[in-house]
């Protein structure tokens, strides 16, 4: 505990001291605007999927869909402070994630026509009940805010605190359309340094289109039960960025049912398959290299087979170098770091938009 | 503990299973090549400064100089595996750092004329005695490796494990000259995602010049006792990137002694002052904005005053936007993320090299 306080102290700058006598009022974030969702989740509003209704999915997939990755709370307030109180189900520490990204909060403010970061909610190690002053000394005018939720933890509750005399209200969602992206840990957000820096979050801010994060770390394996869940979702486009998780054999076996199910239940809606990049470890680890090549090969073969069979509105984005060519875009040899995510957004963004535009999604 | 194993499992890909019957031999990293140091540290070879000899420095500064930031172990081996066993003094968790960067390891391999990442050593939460397979399935040929050490922890011991039949040997340092950079947490490495991605580490790899990391998080306050330590160091250049830590008043008060001491004891050696960037929080937090402006003003005034007084070989790099203009180069509104560090290296690199070249440092 002493170490922890020490660590925190090292990173504070003097102006950030928290006045003890200040009055705040809290609102439950459920009464504000929750973006990034596409279905009701009665068990917990911060889940991404109703895992009771879709109980046939594998246990790991269901658990991961209870994580609040890609969700954000939007509101406007004239408060000079934004504080949060939140509770996560667990307090584990991941080796390759910052606690801020894993189970913290990431606040953006809308300024001069752009969403810019305004502060983070930093978890305290070992605690599930968290509280943090995220922004302060903000000009006392009405501002719009967007607060990204934890990437790798289930959020049990969230309250937003503002100056006691300030107003705080829901706002219309800043994003339009629904582009559902299903995939692996890379999509899910490993290893962004904070939750606003995943590539779907970046794409949503830069295009104003709602990219829905259905990343399930290590488990984007295209099970039939997941396809059967996705068939109920009214999306304007589906993107499959799951190639890193299934084995080459699973790709060959599962892609037809997965794509055909989406095709059948969502006629006329584009389905975009994304080839993943060569994981950086592959440049030194021969087995990783081989596995990545075989996954790519199987994924592309399935795409070509489905095209040959006449599946309409099916697309493939090929990009083995989506995180760049200087080898510095990964944290751990598998997942992008923030540099990698920036590059992915820049690479995928225009290619996705070119396809989406044909369908009026722009 | 169960959660931890779960988290780790989520991030593993099947090929990375560790064969139980494999034989390894370990060598103490002290017998290999340690780069990033400029003085002997009898208490612990992985300290940056002999904090017994320079006992007058403030306690926090001394403690931070025991952290192995910027140090790396270089060696060559024909092993197909690289494993590490290491011990850190503490096991604290920082909210804005990955455990990999804080007290883990970051391995590079020299391939096709370039250092590229080959894997990371991931700490297990709650454990000080750590062990990790960092790279495997490497082609069984001789390769050069560079292993970056923890940024925010004291390293007590480190052993490198290789195939029992392989050779492992020290190599000459890959870097030449000595450019000592003194500064704040930003220099120290907060919030790089791994220790090879701090800006001095990036500059060293891209220029082959030894940029020494004397960052002391939150404590780069230009105390006289630190100047008195630096006067003993035989560097080819000194860079001061400490502006974010002292108050504007401390900058005004301390810069003359700090610079004049370096000037007196290192005649003819360039001293380069770097103006820090506007911390991102400053774009929403009015107090942070004001403080940053006043720090800049005080730092530049001191530079101009010293120039007017005729201090030779003194330079200033002005750059309020070193982490970019899109506001996404910071993790927590203060420290760069990997995007910010990439941009800093690109911004500072050419400006530093232009000055250093005049002194034959190239």
From TrEMBL, chains A, B:
SUPFAM superfamilies per UniProt: SGNH hydrolase
Keywords: Hydrolase, Signal
Signal peptide start and end residues: 1-19
Keyword Metal-binding attached: no
PANTHER family: THIOESTERASE 1/PROTEASE 1/LYSOPHOSPHOLIPASE L1
Name listed for the protein in its UniProt record: Hydrolase
Gene Ontology MF annotations: hydrolase activity, acting on ester bonds
Residues covered by the SGNH hydrolase-type esterase N-terminal domain: 25-168
Species annotation: Barnesiella viscericola DSM 18177
Residues covered by the SGNH hydrolase-type esterase domain: 178-352
Domain of life: Bacteria
């Amino acid at each position: 505990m002493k170490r922890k306080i020490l660590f925190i102290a090292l990173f504070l700058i003097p102006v950030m001291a928290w006045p003890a006598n200040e009055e705040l009022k809290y609102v439950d974030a459920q009464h504000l605007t929750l973006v990034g969702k596409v279905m009701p989740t009665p068990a917990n509003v911060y889940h991404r999927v109703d895992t009771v209704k879709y109980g046939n999915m594998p246990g790991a997939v269901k658990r991961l869909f209870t994580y609040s990755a890609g969700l954000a709370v939007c509101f406007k307030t004239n408060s000079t402070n934004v504080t949060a109180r939140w509770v996560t189900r667990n307090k584990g520490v991941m080796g390759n994630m910052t606690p801020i990204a894993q189970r913290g909060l990431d606040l953006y403010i809308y300024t001069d026509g752009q969403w810019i970061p305004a502060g983070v909610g930093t978890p305290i190690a070992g605690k599930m009940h968290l509280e943090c002053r995220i922004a302060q000394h903000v000009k006392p005018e009405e501002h719009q805010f967007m607060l990204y939720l934890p990437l790798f933890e289930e959020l049990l509750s969230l309250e937003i605190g503002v100056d006691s005399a300030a107003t705080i209200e829901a706002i219309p969602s800043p994003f339009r359309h629904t582009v559902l992206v299903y995939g692996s840990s890379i999509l899910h957000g490993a290893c962004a340094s904070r939750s606003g820096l995943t590539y779907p979050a970046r794409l949503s801010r830069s295009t104003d289109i709602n990219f829905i994060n259905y990343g399930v770390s290590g488990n984007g394996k295209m099970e039939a039960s997941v396809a059967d869940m996705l068939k109920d979702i009214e999306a304007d486009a589906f993107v499959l960025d799951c190639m890193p998780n299934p084995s080459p054999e699973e790709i060959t076996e599962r892609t037809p049912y997965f794509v055909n199910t989406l095709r059948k239940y969502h006629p006329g809606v584009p389905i975009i398959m994304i080839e993943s990049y060569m994981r950086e470890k592959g440049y030194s680890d021969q087995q990783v290299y081989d596995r990545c090549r075989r996954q790519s090969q199987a994924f592309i073969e399935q795409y070509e087979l489905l095209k040959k069979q006449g599946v309409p509105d099916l697309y493939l984005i090929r990009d083995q170098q989506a995180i760049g060519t200087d080898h510095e875009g990964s944290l751990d040899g598998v997942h992008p770091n923030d540099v990698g995510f920036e590059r992915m957004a820049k690479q995928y963004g225009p290619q996705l938009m070119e396809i989406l535009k044909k369908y009026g999604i722009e």
